[in-house]
Amino acid sequence: MLPTFFSPALFEVPRGYVEPMVQYLRLANTTLDFLFYDVNAFRADLSKLGWDVEVDESPLDPSGLTRLLKRLDLSALSNPEGAILVVDAAERPYVKAFRSVAKFLDDNAAKKIGAISITGVGSSALGSAAFAWNLSTALGKPVAAIVPGYGVADVIQQALGGWFGFEMYSYWIKQPVQDVLANTQPQVASIGRALLATTPGHKKATTGAPVFRSGSGSSDVLHAILKSSDRAMHVFGHSKGALVIANAILDLPAPILAKLSVVTFGCSVSESAGVGSYEQFLGVFDLLGIINSGGNAAGHLVDTWHSTNTAMPYTMHVASLSRKLQS
Predict the structure, then answer these.
(1) Which of 57-66, 142-151, 298-307 has the highest average model confidence (pLDDT)?
(2) Taking the domains of the chain in order of start, what are their residue ranges?
(3) Considering the domain 17-152+214-326 in this protein, what is its CATH number?
(4) Rounded to an integer, what distance in angstroms lies between the CA atom of residue 284 and that of residue 211?
């Protein structure tokens, strides 16, 4: 038990010192979005629809990013707090952002959404929107994309190799780090957790700082959405997003699991009993996906590597693979 004179304030680093670093690292992850997600095709499709989404050659150029953010309300691109983006390839405004899980759950249009997507390690709003756009194009309906919050615990996880062994790093590194920060530096622990903090009944430390229920904020957000929905849900995950899904559904009620369809790309997960269906795609050249799959077999082996960027060779074409599932 801590002495009565103990206070988290004794250890607290001012939030203003830490937040710019987290924002910069979040922004730097946008470069990975151009590699692993269909960002250029997403921009091209929107341009054909009359939307100016041109950015400068460098994805890190602030002026280019500002234009993109203003047009599509993707402020979560550099903002570490996360968001839920409703992406609809068939109807304006095409991308709508929610900064609160509770508000998303209360929105009449959002209540009708039956598909959710989650991208991989460190991906920003740009990659999340591009992945969801591919799915929305294929499915012919809107998709809710969970943009992960990005905090200090995520920085440490990624620095220690968060691309590999998500479950090990979540429980041995990321979740304990978040717990320690929440109890010793609650202001720092709250960076990147604004979306998580809007989840109904979210878990908190005694300091009031948010902590994880299931290893990551994204899993907690997805768990809350699925638990609150009475609709049959299709959940799509790429890379670490597949493992986020596996964690999120662990203790969902049986009636919800029975209506759930899980589709993974670039990472295969253990198939939980009671889930309505699984469709899992893994590339034969995807070393990253094979390692993260931990020996779990994929139902569909395809001649691809880890990327879903259709401009590159041997990449996973999310839209065409999703269309095949609908036929």
Answers:
(1) 298-307
(2) 17-152+214-326
(3) 3.40.50
(4) 37
pTM for this model (two decimals): 0.80
Mean pLDDT of 271-296: 90
Cis peptide before 62 (omega within 30 of 0): no
3-state SS class at 30: helix
Q: List the beta strands (DSSP E) in the chain.
A: 83-87, 95-98, 115-118, 143-147, 233-238, 260-265, 277-283, 300-302
Supply the pLDDT for residue 75: 46
Distance (Å, rounded) from C-alpha 292 to C-alpha 280?
13
Nearest residue to 100 via CA among 110, 112, 90, 115: 110
Segment 127-147 mean pLDDT: 92
Say how far apart CA 277 and CA 53 lie, in whole Å: 37
Q: What are residue 243's phi and psi, to 5 degrees?
A: -75, -30
Q: What percent of the chain has pLDDT over 70?
A: 61
What residue spans of 151-282 are helical by DSSP H? 152-159, 166-169, 175-184, 186-189, 194-197, 217-228, 240-248, 254-258
Question: Residue 265 and residue 37: Cα distance in Å, rounded?
Answer: 12
pLDDT at 73: 46
Q: Are 260 and 249 in contact (CB under 8 A)?
A: yes
Q: Which residues contact 259 (CB under 8 A, 6 or more apart)?
A: 231, 232, 233, 276
With beta carbons less than 8 A apart as the criterion, state whether 107 and 98 touch.
yes
112 CB-contact burial (10 Å; exposed 0-12 / middle 13-18 / buried 19+): exposed
> For residues 325 and 263, is the Cβ–Cβ distance under 8 A?
yes
Can you tell me whether residue 130 is helix, strand or coil? helix
For helices 175-184 and 152-159, angle between their N-to-C axes, nearest 10 degrees = 140
